[in-house]
Amino acid sequence: MSLRFAPVARAVCARRSASLVHARGQVMKRRFATGGGPELQPPSQPPGASSVPYLLGGVGIAALGAAYLFFGTDGSAQDTAKEIGTAAKGAVQAVEQKTGIAKSQADYQKVYDAIAESLEVEGYDDGSVAPVLVRLAWHCSGTYDDKDKTGGSNYATMRFKPESAHGANNGLNYARDHMEKIKAKFPWISYGDLWTLGGVVAVQESGGPTIPWRAGRIDGFEHHVTPDGRLPDAAQAEDHLRFIFNRMGFNDQEIVALSGAHALGRCHTDRSGFEGPWSFSPTTFSNAYFDLLLNEGWKWRKWNGPAQYEDKKTKSLMMLPTDMALIKDRSFRKYAEKYAKDEGVFFKDFSDAYSKLLELGVPKAQFPSQSWHMGGEAK
Ligand code: HEM
Question: One of 138, 139, 298, 373 is an active-site residue; which one?
Fold first, then answer.
């Protein structure tokens, strides 16, 4: 793709409405379940419904015992009680999911619709909060360590001060505050489910692929917060990307696919220090990031901020040092080339990797057996 759009920084703003029209006109209408969208399956009936309360009670008591043994008497009595409650909730939830008496897909679809309806915000960045919701979903999941199984989206630990204050999370207070308005309407949803569902809605409603998703995360505690430094540092290069993403369990291909999310959104000087969008349509999910990365000329930007690239032609786009590593490193580059050539392949690989990302750190027992396609038919 060459530079198809008006070559000035303002082009992004000018295009705001156009890309939103694209996203809303062509995608939102199709994906919203309300207002004539495709019908969802009714919630399944619990098998042997009469025995379920006893089953749940039994599991709850077993979980209380297990939690007591696990947590012992460390910490305050109040904390221990809360922990036991959380462990019991997790166990009960697992049974609820298996027996089909948990909230149904139709319940979560209502949350999906409310998030989708909230995406367009006049005067905020390029007119949509979708990009920052994708970033929230990714940062709440990307703390996972596959070796010790800590971190990830299960406990929504970014609610707590140590993690919300981690430098990598600067600016995500906007996304969390935005999601509080949705939480107020659906208080039964866990924060981990809410934030990851937000990331799904944001990608799908911006024109991206369907992301298989399922509910089951539970809210945790401050001591579940992982140490600072688990998310990538944009000033670094390929070795750092592998170090960070291999820890989560991702390979080269998945690292490149996930990075394609930078087709959406922009950098902010008051958040990361970097500045500007990666693409001319920052509210539309596409393979434009790879196309621009490979086919435009890039040079270091001369400015007082952190080292970043700008496109030679318009000087209105940016790339981070870590973005550029995806075409400098031979193994990464072959995937970037594949995704630039074929948006369908990118969509498929992004969907797989992003869906996996959003489930990091969640014990499988907390999930129902199958993922859902929220927002209507799969794309
Ligand atoms: C590969 C390593 C990555 C690095 C170093 C990185 C770095 C950054 C930085 C510095 C920003 C700008 C934040 C700001 O100033 O507002 C940003 C924004 C963003 N990132 Fe990444 N990121 C990476 C991977 C990812 C992944 C895996 C995803 C999602 C799958 C993602 C999605 C986004 C989105 C959508 C934005 C725009 C947010 C907005 O417009 O507010 N990034 N990223």
Answer: 139
